[in-house]
Amino acid sequence: MSFSRSHVVAVARSWEGTPYHHQAYLKHVGADCLGLLRGVFIELYGHDPEAPPTYSPSWGDVQPDELLLDAARRYLVVPDYDGWLPGDVLVFRVKNAVSAKHCAIAIDGEIMLHAVSNRHVMRTAIGAWSSRIAGVFKFPGVE
User: Fold this and answer.
1) 7, 53, 92, 141: which could join 2 in a potential S-S bond, CB 3.0 to 4.6 Å?
2) What is the Cα–Cα distance from 18 to 4, expressed in whole angstroms?
3) How far is it, in rounded angstroms, from Cα 62 to Cα 64?
4) Cα–Cα distance between 137 and 82 in angstroms, integer?
5) Cα dist from 73 to 42, 53, 69, 120, whole Å
6) What is the pLDDT of residue 143?
């Protein structure tokens, strides 16, 4: 199965406006950042990679394990280039010295799509977020 980057971006953008809802992954109903990523994965491949364990909004602040990065390494591909390209998954550390706990999908070199707590799935400038990137991945089969 192969996908163009523009197809991945189009699928991701179809989630714009989905209300934020912790642990959800239903387009137009509710999603958190992981839910957005899971939802896009399901649309691309027809199945959920794995159901995550129950997690609190503050899980990465108190747990030292890199659960999000480890899952990304299991189901996504580490690219062979520096930076990111449209359709890539960006994983962030929200605070220094704690686990990576936020993710987004790059729309282009400057804009990402992510679920924002108490708001919705929306486009945001990567800008200052770039200094918090803990990992860049691409969906399997993206050309």
Assistant:
1) 141
2) 24
3) 7
4) 11
5) 17, 17, 6, 26
6) 85
Cα 120–chain centre separation: 14
- Which residues fall within 8 angstroms of residue 111, CB to CB, at 6 or more apart? 123, 124, 125, 126
Output the CA torsion sign for 91, 48, 13, 35: negative
> What pTM, to 2 d.p., does this model score?
0.92
Report the percentage of the chain scoring pLDDT > 90.
Answer: 79
How many other β-carbons are positioned within 10 Å of the β-carbon of residue 40? 25
Give the 3-state secondary structure of residue 28: coil
% of the chain exceeding 70 in pLDDT? 92
Structure tokens at 48: 């959920």
Residue 60, pLDDT > 60, answer no
Res 61 pLDDT > 90? no
Residue 58 confidence (pLDDT): 63
Q: How far is CA 120 from CA 22, 30, 68, in A?
A: 11, 8, 21
